[in-house]
Amino acid sequence: MLDLKYIRTYLLVCSLVVVLQPFQGLAQQNSGASRTSLQHPPTEWDGQHDFDFEIGTWKTHLRRLVHPLTGSTTWIEYDGTTVVRKVWNGRANLVELDADGAAGHFEGLNLRLYNPQSHQWSLNFANSNDGTLSQPTIGEFKNGRGEFFDQETLNGRAIYVRFVISEITPDSCRFEQAFSTDGGKTWEVNWMATDIRVKDESDKSLHHTPTERDGQHDFDFEMGTWKIHLSRLLHPLTGSTTWIEFDGTSVTRKVWDGRAYLEEFEADSPTGHIEGLTLRLYNPKSHQWNLNWANSKDGTLGQPTIGEFKNGRGEFFDQEPFNGRAILVRYVWSDITPNSAHFEQSFSDDGGKTWEGNWITTQTRVNDESDKAH
Q: What is the pLDDT of residues 253-269, one digit of tens each?
């Protein structure tokens, strides 16, 4: 099987997936902070459309150094298909990569998010083997060349990782990953890829038939477009009984034939416009889902909320800081029918003994709209 550790970085740059959970990160932000998709013209050109060149379908040829940082000169090759889809009108995008080679089959995705404050991109990778997002690789484009960096461990040692996107034309581009053990003074290239655009294929997901059914399609009910009515407790965990109400729209798209989802959400609340997305990833080992939320205000993924469905009810948990204190967060999906569903977020500051609901949504399917972002 393909060595996933070494391909993570390339996929951070050329593969992606996202799903919306409009409610993740409320504890961290203590507000309904900006979360939406759907096209809004930018007020300035500052890098938020740097990846527009890659929207579409590509044939990908890969070369990987088998044993990086060992003096090895043995390379193996793979061929595959990459599909890149626009999110937030280009301020984010989702990449899916499917490849076969000497080491086996690989299926991965990458969610790229633009931070309008730092004018940088964060690249967030996951593969279908464990459905877990890796740490982000961060950087930007300058003079038509993209460079992205992070620090990781390899064979027990800390190293720097660099991704470079170059030689960009309307129909081709090049990706290169390199490692450094000397603080970036020298770099050893270990992954090279060349993409050639497939002009006659539509921008659609790669589909694969699952080998088993064990929870990996629990979110199939949410495919499509929805009208959402939301109620939010204005000041959670303060004794407040003041709620505000507003309406929004969400669009959910399937990834990995339902083993992942990208949802985009948009609403106008009394406290401002919300634009966000959630990437939901299924872990076939634990049979649980990871829900990863981001909003367009900072383009940064929050920590995942993890859980599963039982008897038609989904429960997902994590721990977050809120007003300087650690609290537990719970999401519940219930009352699921083909055309409606109920979602509720609650906080607990006593270790889960009691829960206070603070975000409630009722969603109704829009039957006449296709499954795509606007």
A: 999 888 899 999 999 98
